Amino acid sequence: MVERLLALGYLDTNDLPPNSKWQGSCASRLLRWLKSEHYVTIGMKMSPPNHRSWSKQATLVLAACEHGWDCSIEHCGDDWVLWYCYPSAIDDEVLVSSMKMQLALAHYLEQDMLKSPPANRPRIWRSKL
Asked: Does residue 78 register a pLDDT over 90?
C-alpha cells in the first residue's frame, strides 16, 4: 500500500525532519503509518486551533461524515494526528480518492470547522422591524 502511494507520487519519504517519528509526507503534511497483513493505517499530522471544544467538535464531524467513520484522532504530545484505515486490497482510484478525502478532512478540521458560516440573508426578526 505505501509502496503503491510512493509509486503514484502521493507520498514522499525525502526531506523529513531529522530524528523524526514521521515516515513521510503528502501535500506538505507529515505522515506516519502502521502496516498489518490486510490494512495500512495512515496518520496525518494536524495543527488545529487551540480551542477547548475543538476535539469534541472534531469527533462529532467524523461521526457525521461517512468517510470519517474509518478515521480517528490522536493527541500525542504536542501533535494531533488524523488516522485513516486503508484496506490492502483497495483499488488505486479509490485509494487516491480516499487519500484526498483524508487531506480535505484534515484541512477542514484545522481551519474551517470552528468558523461560523456567513449570513447571506437577513434574519427573519430583522425584516419584521
From this structure: no
Q: What is the mean pLDDT of the chain?
A: 87
The grid coordinates of residue 128 equal 419584521
Does residue 58 sit in helix, strand or coil?
helix
CA atoms of 18 and 76, how far apart (whole Å): 19
Among 6, 73, 9, which Cα is nearest to 46's? 73
Smallest Cα–Cα separation from 109: which of 25, 22, 74? 74
Residue 100 contacts by C-beta under 8 Å, 6 or more apart in sequence? none
Grid cell for residue 41:
493505517
Q: What are phi and psi of 66, to 5 degrees?
A: -55, -40
